[in-house]
């Protein structure tokens, strides 16, 4: 299966700390994306990194991609209570880059 | 405002009933998708459509049916053949360039 796997499954930190989540996948990808889901809501697209990129930034988010290890990480710096949510990685395979496979997510709790 | 609308937000189904979940988008996106999410789990692809009047099965299509008669609409019917339909259903749409999905806010289906 192409499905990514996030690690850890759950993460609890204090406000102001950094949060790091990891994603591993199994086959060649076109790109990898990270999404956020607040409880009981739809997913919101955060950031996309293409297979030929190694690092990307967007505000307090930093994403890295290591295609040799088939892994990615999402770093949220200076976390806030409002960052509390589940975070999912999604991979699009090389043959059908419009079809995404989602991992099971990391549930982040940021304590005020 | 452009977006993707799912209705209803909550739906209750009796045993043996078919129910239809609505998904409408005004983003002019070609592709639309249906995912199922079980508690604490990732998303699993049910059906997707890359163009009007065409759709393909995802990983868990059994017990579900879809239609794509209009670009804006991609309704999902949960049939009585789906033995465990209680879940959170998410609809998404995208431009066909691999840049990511826009999600609706979801429909929570419960069998009573």
Please supply descriptive tags for the structure shown above.
heterodimer, A: 112 residues, mainly beta, 6-stranded mixed β-sheet, 5-stranded antiparallel β-sheet, 11 strands, globular, B: 112 residues, 7-stranded mixed β-sheet, 4-stranded antiparallel β-sheet
Describe this structure as you would to a colleague.
- The complex is a heterodimer of chains A (112) and B (112).
- Chain A is mainly β and 112 residues long.
- Helices cover 0% and strands 58% of the residues of chain A.
- In chain A, the strands form two sheets. In chain A, strands 2, 4, 5, 9, 10 and 11 form a six-stranded mixed β-sheet that branches. In chain A, strands 1-3-8-7-6 form a five-stranded antiparallel β-sheet, with no helix packed on it.
- By secondary structure, chain B is an all-beta fold.
- Chain B has no helices and eleven strands.
- In chain B, strands 2, 4, 5, 6, 9, 10 and 11 form a seven-stranded mixed β-sheet that branches. In chain B, strands 1-3-8-7 form a four-stranded antiparallel β-sheet, with no helix packed on it.
- The mean pLDDT of chain B is 93.
- At the A-B interface, β4, β5, β9 and β10 of A face β5, β9 and β10 of B.
